[in-house]
Structures are given as C-alpha cells and as structure tokens.
UniProtKB/TrEMBL annotation:
InterPro entries: CdaR-like_regulators, CdaR_GGDEF, Diacid_rec, PucR_C-HTH_dom, PucR_C-HTH_sf. Residues 139-241 form the CdaR GGDEF-like domain. It comes from the Bacteria. This is Carbohydrate diacid regulator. Residues 289-343 form the PucR C-terminal helix-turn-helix domain. Belongs to the CdaR family. Residues 4-133 form the Putative sugar diacid recognition domain. Gene3D superfamilies: PucR C-terminal helix-turn-helix domain.
Length: 350
C-alpha cells in the first residue's frame, strides 16, 4: 500500500483537530504537506519535516523561519520505518503535553488502515474461493487461492447461510464475524449478498454470535471442498423452508427439514397443481389453516394443540371435523395428515 496517502493524512488531521485547538500538519516521506488544518499549506515543503526525515528524530521549532512555524514535529513509524511526519503548530512549551499523543494517534490510524486493507484483501480472495466452490468453477485455481491463505480444504465443515444487507453494513458485519472465527473457518459473500461461513466442525457446531441474530440456514456436514456446494444449497433450502414454516427463529438446520426438502424436490419434478386441489377450500378459512398449523406443530397431540390455540378440546375436535369436511382429509388419520402436510408445503412454496 502507499503508506501515507492524502486521504489518510487528512483523516489523521481531522481526528486530532476535533479535540485540539492547534493546527496539525502531516507530511509524506519527502517532507511535503499532504494533510493540514490549513488547506493553503497543502503541497508546500515543510522544512521541519525535512529535518525530521534527515535526523530520524523529533524536531522542535521555537521560532518562525522560512518554511517552518513554531511547533513540534515527529517521525511517523510503521514496521520500523519512517513513512511520514506529523507536526503540531504552536509554542513547543504549550503543545509538548499533547505532541506524543498526536504521534501515537497518527501511528494508530496508520496501523488501523493497514489492517483494514489486509482484511479487505483477504476477504476478496475468500469471496472468490467460496463463490468458485459453490458454483463448481475455478479448478486448480481454487486450491492455489486456499493455499495462499493457509486453508486446508479437506476439513469437515458445514455451510452457514445468512442474508446480507447494504454494503457498508455488510463490511461491518464481516469484520465483527471475523473476530469470532476459528482456525480453518472460511467466510465469503456471494454476488447476491448472501454471507456464507464454511464452519469447521469439531466436537459440536459453534455458531458465531452475529450469525445467531439470523435467520441463518445450516447445511449438512461436508468432508471435503467437493461437497461445499451441496452444504450451501442445503443451508439455503433450510432457511427458505424454515422461515415459511416457523417464522421468527434464529437458526434453521437442514437436518430438521430434511423430509420437507425431499418432498419439495419431488413436487418440483412434477408440479401438478391439481393433485393438491383438495387443499384449496381450506385456504378460504383462516381458522382452519391456523388449526392445522398448530396441530402439526404439536405432532397431533390434542391437549397441547388446544392449549396452543387457547381453545377447549371440544372446540378443537369441531375444527378438525371442519377440516375433514372442507378437504376430505381427516387430520386424525396419519395418511390423511401426511397428504395435508404435503399440500401445505406445496402451497407455501408456490
């Protein structure tokens, strides 16, 4: 990176002058002012900075001279080399107490900028890696990218799929997730702004806190990168099914919705709407739909279903009779209940 850019220099100036009343100048490695509280001085050669760069130490200027005003000038170090100079204008006796803090602040901003650039570079590579693996493209380049990041592609992992947001929010979310990752975890973003984490599976699945705010879809376990695509698709499917069936939960696992996923795939292969026409009359009765939902959630247990709906058992029996009357399917019979469930899945997915 170009260590001390004009933008970074001005950021150092603006941050510092927001809390101090003295003018701040930042000079590059040639002694030219590239950031200042006095815009008229930008582009000028700062003689004090030239002295700092020559002697590699702090220089105090007590009297105004050509190209210099009274103040204190410090070298800015990064990785043990001087990358610029920061100066505070004013009587050295008055600004001495703040000078060291200004130097530390400048070096901290520089380090943060470097770390952010490193994070963004790593994230770009990981994005490419993840997108190539879930689309089945990339070939040998995928292994090379993984190697550049020290990633072993053949560890057991599961895909966690989270819908992203706007780009600035997404970058903040990625950085916060990064602090919770374990060795071997791979974080990426798809072109459709999905945030995908291929999480290494150890003794148990530890979902990062920022993912648990969800909703997040969890795919099946993969033994190698060849199966990353399957786990990703499973996570997406679990998220889609779970949000329709049980909205409001933070996590939807493919293991919980494996049967529903299988049924939907079978339906999509032969989407004959007429075969589920018996379900259409029920859709005209919100109370019937609500009753069937609760009955399914409580696994057909009458007492718990009645409690869930805040109704008497006799009222529940009456409603189940009405569902039978509307659909020709008796929810109290396992085969009929299965047919109602499959029809429900079909209509919720179309």
């Amino acid at each position: 990176m170009a260590f001390m850019t004009r933008e970074l220099a001005q950021e150092i100036v603006n941050r510092t002058m927001a809390i101090l009343d003295w003018n701040i100048n930042v000079m590059n490695e040639e002694g030219i002012i590239i950031g200042s509280g006095d815009a008229n001085r930008i582009g000028d050669v700062h003689e004090g900075a030239i002295l700092v760069l020559r002697h590699k130490k702090k220089i105090e200027v007590r009297e105004e001279r050509e190209g210099m005003k009274p103040g204190i000038n410090f070298p800015i170090f990064f990785n043990e080399q001087i990358v610029g100079v920061v100066g505070i204008t004013g009587d050295p006796r008055e600004v001495q107490a703040f000078a060291e803090l200004i130097k530390m602040s400048a070096e901290l901003v520089l380090e943060q900028s470097f770390l952010l650039e490193q994070f963004q570079w790593k994230q770009r590579i990981q994005n490419d890696l993840v997108n190539q693996l879930i689309t089945g493209t990339g070939g040998a380049a995928v292994v090379e990218k993984a190697g550049s990041l020290g990633i072993n592609l053949d560890l057991p992992r599961v895909a966690l799929v989270l819908e992203g947001g706007t780009e600035p929010d997404e970058q903040n979310l990625l950085r916060s997730i990064e602090f919770e990752l374990d060795k071997g975890d791979v974080l990426g973003v798809t072109p459709s702004n999905e945030i995908i984490l291929f999480k290494v599976v150890g003794k148990g699945l530890k979902i990062p806190r920022r993912f648990r705010s969800g909703p997040v879809g969890v795919g099946g376990v993969t033994e190698s990168s060849r199966d990353w695509r399957n786990s990703y698709e499973q996570g997406k499917l679990a998220l889609a099914i779970g949000r329709r069936m049980r909205p409001g939960l933070p996590v939807y696992s493919y293991e919980e919705y494996r049967i529903e996923a299988l049924l939907l795939r079978m339906i999509e292969q032969d989407p004959d709407i007429e075969r589920f026409s018996y379900y259409l009359p029920l859709l005209e009765h919100a109370e019937g739909v609500e009753t069937l939902d609760a009955y399914l959630q409580e696994n057909g247990e009458l007492n718990r279903t009645a409690e869930r709906l805040f109704i008497h058992r006799n009222t529940l029996r009456y409603r189940l009779d009405k569902i039978f009357q509307w659909t020709g399917k008796d929810p109290r019979k396992i085969r009929d209940l299965m047919e109602l469930y499959v029809a429900k899945l079909f209509h919720e997915s179309h």
